[in-house]
Design a protein that fits this description.
single chain; 134 residues; alpha+beta; three-stranded antiparallel β-sheet
Length: 134
């Protein structure tokens, strides 16, 4: 089963908590036990799993990623000016596997799933592929 969501990102660089979209897709599917793969098919966006209780975690992650790959770098040759976004996306990756057990998405207590925008604002695709395991 394949489900696609469209996610509007609000700013040039941000993390959008998409955990509820994925959990809702799992519920909607009726699948009780599965392995799912969540993907963002874009070269300047990514996915990550991290703490969703303290918003300072996201702020700190964005700040540190910016220090690794600054938005403005006079040495970049890519004419679109978003080389930093390509690097950040490559560092974090564009898909993650998850487990569904008894109809529930399995995550740790503090974990949330984030769509990471590095070249927005844009409308991004979130693809959820489910492989039933029962």
């Amino acid at each position: 089963m394949l489900i696609q969501e469209r996610i509007r990102t609000p700013s040039p660089q941000c993390f959008v908590d998409v955990t509820h979209y994925i959990a809702a897709a799992v519920k909607q599917s009726g699948i009780k036990n599965a392995h799912i793969l969540v993907s963002v098919p874009h070269t300047t966006a990514a996915l990550t799993v991290n703490e969703n209780a303290d918003p300072d975690v996201v702020t700190d992650l964005l700040r540190r990623l910016e220090s690794i790959a600054p938005s403005r770098d006079s040495l970049d040759r890519h004419s679109e000016g978003n080389s930093h976004a390509h690097l950040k996306s490559s560092l974090l990756g564009s898909c993650h596997p998850f487990i569904v057990n008894e109809g529930e998405l399995v995550l740790g207590t503090w974990q949330g799933i984030y769509l990471c925008e590095f070249d927005g604002p844009r409308t991004r695709s979130l693809i959820i592929s489910m492989l039933k395991s029962d």
